[in-house]
Design goal:
Elements (H helix, E strand, L loop, with lengths): L29 E6 L14 H10 L4 E3 L5 E3 L2 E6 L5 E6 L13 H14 L1 H6 L3 E7 L2 E6 L6 H5 L9 H5 L17 E7 L3 E6 L23 E6 L3 H9 L5 E5 L4 H6 L3 E15 L9 H10 L2 H6 L7 E2 L25 H11 L6 E6 L2 H16 L4 E6 L1 H8 L8 E7 L22 H12 L3 H18 L2 E14 L2 E2 L13 E2 L2
Helix pairs in contact: 8-10, 13-14
Length: 510
């Protein structure tokens, strides 16, 4: 989204919620949200679209959720145990949770949901590989692995791991679920979608928040607004004007160029949320980038700052060599000696040493300003190193199709990865993934080591190993990480500046 995107114990529904410094929470009303576009589906198991996640996070919940420190916290489970050998997880479900159709949450729902999670998503396929999921009784779920697994809780916190009623999944047709089947346990439930007009979510009256302090997307959720109304306003200037007028309370999808306009308004505040990493993903199956020595030589010559500068003010971007966002605890600079090195002459020398023969590089980019700008900068930097490069600008849907076809003539694709916190979700590192073009035993072993690591020290060591292998084989070029910009009207209070937006614990003051 935005100019650069492409897209524990339980309690009842009463209780104190986090208060904004500016006033007491206010109940009621319709909270109006302006979007840059409509989602194609509300089913997060079939897409990693941030637009879809904005909706689903209010309707659906996972067994766990990430707090502000990116640590998994219980959401639909009351407690859990991990066996001493790290191979068996036992989850006890909360007793007070119901779905929006009135059904009580039971273990069969979890088993069915995790089966779909494993079948449809790369995250689930990786997290639940070589596992068995069983339900000894209605409130207990057991996940058993052949080897120790220290990454399951993170995967179960992923937005692609929501828990549905088993009855919905058993009768579902292949493909994305229709909106009326997006039935979860969250504070809001799906009400209506008028395509091209609006999507309405309504407060779920029987919602039972977890009895834990709100932090990140974890903890207690209170639905203060009666309704959440989402409408697409594609033009950013029109979107800002509509929020400033009070027609909307908040809007997403703004780039650095919009910051000045937002800041000039007496009724608006600019909120920045880190959303992801900009990068050029490499097709390692076609020459000349099938040679890791050539890929490493190009890394030496890249100037990452130049990619960030097109995003505007430095408050909108950051250079970081870490595969994970720089504010995630595991992030590091392991193996990154050549990141942002900007040594063009050394890159030329290394290219000659590697035997680069002048074969041109085709850079595929969707026909959107942000990714195209990144492609243009990459083209310029490659040419400075003596590498001929062309830009192949295509529609977004074409790019998405061709990304899965490495023999279709492209060498790099201008892309981004949303602000994920689980390295095992990085598709271009996963051998066999549709969007991975590299299968190296060293990378596979490093990923396996991470998955089987249980202690924090082991996980950090394993993550560093993955990143070292990344810079050794260079399946992608990290450029910058960025923040998505939100415009917030002064009447909206309690809005949390997290990795992704949510509107529980948020209210309309006027």
């Amino acid at each position: 989204m935005g100019a650069i995107l492409w897209l524990t114990a339980c309690s009842g529904s009463s209780g104190d919620a986090p208060e904004a410094e500016s006033g007491e929470p206010v109940e009621g009303g319709t909270l109006n949200i302006a979007l840059s576009d409509e989602p194609s589906t509300l089913d997060t198991m079939t897409t990693r679209s941030v637009l879809t996640q904005i909706f689903s996070t209010h309707i659906m919940e996972q067994l766990f959720a990430l707090d502000a420190n990116f640590e998994p916290q219980p959401m639909l489970v009351s407690d859990y145990e991990l066996s001493e050998d790290g191979t068996v997880y036992t989850f006890n479900l909360r007793d007070d949770v119901t779905f929006h159709n009135g059904d009580e949450l039971i273990s069969d729902d979890v088993v069915a949901s995790l089966a779909r999670f494993k079948e449809l998503t790369g995250v689930g396929a990786t997290a639940l590989a070589n596992s068995e999921v069983s339900a000894p009784d209605d409130k207990t779920v057991v996940v058993s692995f052949e080897q120790p697994n220290g990454n399951l809780l993170s995967a179960l916190s992923d937005r692609q791991a929501p828990i549905y009623p088993a009855s919905v999944l058993e009768s579902a047709e292949p493909g994305p679920l229709p909106p009326e089947d997006i039935i979860g346990t969250g504070p809001y439930e799906y009400t209506n979608w008028a395509p091209g007009v609006e999507i309405i979510l309504s407060e779920y009256d029987d919602y039972a928040p977890v009895d834990a302090e709100a932090s990140g997307v974890a903890g207690k959720k209170i639905a203060y607004a009666d309704e959440l109304r989402f409408a697409a306003v594609p033009d950013s200037a029109s979107r800002i004007a509509a929020i400033e007028s009070g027609q909307f309370h908040i809007g997403e999808g703004f780039g650095g160029d919009d910051a000045q306009l937002i800041n000039q308004s007496p009724t608006l505040e600019a909120n920045r949320m880190r959303l992801g990493k900009l990068m050029m993903i490499v097709n390692t199956t076609l020459p000349p980038l099938d040679d890791p020595a050539i890929r490493r030589a190009i890394q030496v010559g890249l100037d990452a700052d130049a990619f960030g500068q097109v995003l505007g003010d430095e408050e909108n971007w950051n250079t970081s060599p870490s595969l994970l966002p720089s504010d995630v605890p595991l992030s590091s600079d392991a193996g990154a000696e050549d990141y942002n090195r900007d040594d063009v002459e050394e890159a030329k020398r290394l290219l000659e040493e590697a035997g680069y023969d002048g074969t041109p590089i085709s850079i595929m980019t969707p026909a959107l300003s942000g990714p195209r700008s990144q492609a243009v900068i990459m083209q310029e930097q490659l040419q400075n190193m003596g590498v001929e490069a062309t830009i192949d600008e295509v529609e977004l849907t074409v790019m998405q199709t061709r990304r899965g076809e490495p023999d279709s003539g492209w060498n790099m694709v201008s892309s981004q990865v949303s602000g994920q916190t689980d390295i095992t979700q990085t598709s271009f590192l996963l051998c066999g993934n549709r969007y991975s073009y590299i299968c190296e035993e060293d990378i596979d072993q490093a990923m396996d080591n991470f998955t089987s690591s249980v202690t924090e020290e082991e996980r950090q060591e394993a993550y560093n190993q993955i990143q070292e292998e990344f810079y050794e084989y260079v399946p992608a070029y990290l450029t910058t990480e960025f923040w998505d910009l939100y415009a917030v009207h002064e009447d909206l209070e309690g809005f949390a500046n997290e990795v992704q937006p949510f509107f529980w614990n948020t209210w309309i003051s006027n």
